[in-house]
């Protein structure tokens, strides 16, 4: 997770603590502490809860919304929110395409009713994976231009910029995961189909996070065990389904936050 320094509360916030403010601060604190050791799906759920709190915070009468409109602050927040909505939308599309490619390979193996998958099945799957990986690589490179630094002396602004930082980091992790790579692993960790294991119903890394590295199948692999392969593919499909659901709820929360920001600008 990206680390950013955020300062103390400004005078634009109410002098007494408020449940909404405390809730947002608590969600931010948890993301700072747990993001590295928590699964992607859990982080997506945390982001959704965070944005629900931020949305309530923006609409609090006691919060000085006018300070957000000073200078170029609101425009920067709107620009950032649009990029996050687009990035989340892309992540949803990648997840959908990944699940579709897995389901297609599963269907092909079942239709063949053979002990091994055909080379045509594998070739089609590998071509789809390469296309997805290329899209993910390009998207991650584009994230370098994303500005989520905070320089303003306003607590609401600071909270939202820190939320942007967490959004960006978690969505990047989602894209890396869907590409079949682990952030902590090397790019040489591609697995052979013949080495798929059947010991676990769900694939996780040692840190407790999801692991979809088994999605990257080598085209040249032969004599594949279809039963083991199908079980591994089904496990991956279940994980991708959870990620899809998390992305969908986060997407709605990001859109809702953006609408709230637009309402601030229009008043």
Question: What would you say this structure looks like, in words?
Answer:
The structure is a single chain. Helix 1 runs antiparallel to helix 2 (40-58) and helix 2 (40-58) packs parallel to helix 6. The two termini are 35 Å apart. By secondary structure, this protein is an all-alpha fold. The protein is built from six helices and no strands. It has helices spanning 19-34, 40-58, 73-112, 119-142, 155-178, 226-266. Mean pLDDT is 75; it is low at 1-11 and 183-208.
Features:
single chain, 267 residues, mainly alpha, 6 helices
Structural category: mainly alpha
* Integer average pLDDT: 75
The largest β sheet comes out as:
none
Task: Tell how many strands the DSSP assignment holds.
Answer: 0
Share of helical residues: 55-70%
User: How much β-strand is present in the residues?
Assistant: under 5%
How many helices in DSSP terms? Answer: 6
Give the N-terminus to C-terminus distance in angstroms.
35 Å
Outline: elongated
CA gyration radius, whole angstroms = 21 Å
Unreliable sequence segments: 1-11, 183-208
- Order of H and E elements: HHHHHH
Task: Give a concise summary.
This protein is mainly α and 267 residues long. Helices cover 61% and strands 0% of the residues.
């Amino acid at each position: 997770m990206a680390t950013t320094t955020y300062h103390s509360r400004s005078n634009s916030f109410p002098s007494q603590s408020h449940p909404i403010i405390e809730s947002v601060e608590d969600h931010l604190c948890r993301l700072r502490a747990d993001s590295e050791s928590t699964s992607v799906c859990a982080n997506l759920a945390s982001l959704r809860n965070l944005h629900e709190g931020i949305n309530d915070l923006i609409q609090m009468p006691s919060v000085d919304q006018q300070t957000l409109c000073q200078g170029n602050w609101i425009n920067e927040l709107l620009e950032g929110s649009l990029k996050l909505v687009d990035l989340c939308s892309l992540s949803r599309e990648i997840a959908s395409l990944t699940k579709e490619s897995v389901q297609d390979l599963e269907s092909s193996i079942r239709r063949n009713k053979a002990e091994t998958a055909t080379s045509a099945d594998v070739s089609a799957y590998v071509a789809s994976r390469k296309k997805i990986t290329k899209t993910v690589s390009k998207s991650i490179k584009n994230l370098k231009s994303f500005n989520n630094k905070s320089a303003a002396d306003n607590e609401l602004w600071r909270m939202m910029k820190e939320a942007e930082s967490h959004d960006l980091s978690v969505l990047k992790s989602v894209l890396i995961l869907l590409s079949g790579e682990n952030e902590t692993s090397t790019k040489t960790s591609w697995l052979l189909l013949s080495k798929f294991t059947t010991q676990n119903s769900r694939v996780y890394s040692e840190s407790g996070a999801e692991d979809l590295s088994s999605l990257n199948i080598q085209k040249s692999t032969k004599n594949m065990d279809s039963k083991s392969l199908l079980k591994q593919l089904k496990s991956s499909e279940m994980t991708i389904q959870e990620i899809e659901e998390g992305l969908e709820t986060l997407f709605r929360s990001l859109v809702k936050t953006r609408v709230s920001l637009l309402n601030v600008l229009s008043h």
